[in-house]
């Protein structure tokens, strides 16, 4: 269950960066002829053309969706390019994507505490860098603001296309802004600079959210895709959350979110404001009740972990329906393949990062029984 963490006393600048259609971008870099073309990356299992795991924006315009299989995507978009993920040992080999993600992390980590949340997602704590910028070269003292920063999306700011960039520039340069918003303005400029650097050095675009905590930054990073960023001023938090469906919130997409809807009639985060902290604690316990009360107000004390490397390495293979393994020799053969892959990744990790794995966990599913050894 979620746990409420104390909110830091000092204002923070937190960014969440999400690489756009990451698998597709990696394949487009490997094969530049795919750039600007409707493209999708498909699973190693080629049944009905393979399941789509990433779809380019060009393909989405034709109605292609990740829930489709390759054959269906071709019916919707006859000109689509389907690229199968690399295969090794009769299963998907994602190393090319992991390595590409590491390139991006190496760039982003130069500006502050960096947490690699997944292969294509990163959190940054830019508080110190933003404070330094505010002291040495505050936005209002700059004759020209970095062009990419003026393309930011600021919640609650008029979005008239003709005047949008001027409105954003005016917001970034406000001399009368409070300290929190000035830090956010610096954060927006820093993130814009990092996104341009990522594009220049890796050819990858990414979208970003900039806010005072991880929760809000994550919520808005995908609002304006691709290759854009969104800023959440403190004054816009309540209006933003008021109409947000509870299922959109991290940790509210499952049983807890369903309970809020079914038991309390809560459909949006704003609906939670109608309940006192004590009442929420009565329903869900002290920790979860307090977490819900804070979440409704946009409060989160979750820290960005300084973690550039994954916590663990894992490899697996599923055998659905008729592909289920039926004898010991088949099981042994696949265990050997998985152990070889895991061994290679552990050896590579040792060579590159000078660390050794300490625990091995084996998951095996037979029928509907899950075994953990």
UniProtKB/TrEMBL annotation:
Gene Ontology MF annotations: damaged DNA binding; DNA-directed DNA polymerase activity; metal ion binding
The protein's name: DNA polymerase eta
Homology family: Belongs to the DNA polymerase type-Y family.
Gene3D superfamilies the UniProt entry points to: 3.30.70.270, 3.40.1170.60, 5' to 3' exonuclease, C-terminal subdomain (1.10.150.20), DNA polymerase, Y-family, little finger domain (3.30.1490.100)
Superkingdom of this protein's organism: Eukaryota
Domain UmuC: 14-253
EC numbers: 2.7.7.7
Annotated keywords: DNA damage, DNA repair, Magnesium, Metal-binding, Nucleotidyltransferase, Nucleus, Transferase
Localization of this protein: Nucleus
């Amino acid at each position: 269950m979620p746990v409420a963490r104390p909110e830091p006393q000092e204002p923070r600048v937190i960014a969440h960066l999400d690489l756009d259609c990451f698998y597709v971008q990696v394949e487009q870099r490997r094969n530049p002829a795919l750039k600007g073309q409707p493209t999708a990356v498909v699973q190693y299992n080629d049944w009905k053309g393979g399941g789509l795991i990433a779809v380019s924006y060009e393909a989405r315009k034709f109605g292609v969706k990740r829930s489709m299989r390759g054959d269906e995507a071709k019916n919707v978009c006859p000109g689509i390019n389907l690229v199968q993920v690399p295969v090794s040992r009769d299963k998907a080999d994602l190393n090319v994507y992991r390595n590409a993600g590491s390139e991006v992390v190496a760039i982003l980590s130069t500006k502050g505490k960096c947490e690699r949340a997944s292969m294509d997602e990163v959190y940054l704590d830019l508080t110190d860098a933003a404070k330094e910028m505010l002291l040495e070269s505050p936005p209002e003292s700059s004759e020209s603001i970095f062009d990419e920063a003026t393309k930011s999306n600021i919640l609650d700011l008029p979005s008239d296309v003709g005047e949008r960039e001027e409105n954003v520039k005016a917001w970034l340069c406000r001399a009368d802004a409070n300290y929190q918003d000035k830090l956010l303005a610096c954060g927006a400029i820093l993130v814009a600079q990092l996104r341009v650097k990522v594009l220049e050095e890796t050819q990858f675009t990414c979208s970003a959210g900039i806010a005072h905590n991880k929760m809000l930054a994550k919520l808005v990073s995908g609002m304006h895709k691709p290759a854009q960023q969104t800023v959440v001023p403190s004054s816009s938090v309540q209006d933003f959350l008021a109409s947000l469906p509870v299922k959109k919130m991290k940790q509210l997409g499952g049983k807890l979110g369903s309970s809020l809807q079914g038991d309390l009639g809560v459909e949006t985060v704003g609906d939670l404001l109608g309940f006192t902290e004590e009442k929420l604690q009565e329903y869900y316990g002290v920790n979860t009740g307090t977490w819900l009360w804070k979440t409704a107000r946009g409060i989160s004390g979750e820290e960005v972990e300084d973690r550039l490397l994954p916590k663990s390495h894992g490899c697996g293979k599923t055998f659905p329906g008729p592909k289920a393994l039926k004898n010991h020799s088949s099981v042994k053969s696949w265990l050997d393949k998985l152990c070889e892959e895991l061994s290679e990744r552990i050896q590579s990790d040792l060579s590159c990062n000078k660390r050794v794995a300490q625990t091995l966990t084996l998951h095996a599913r037979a029928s509907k029984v899950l075994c953990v050894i």
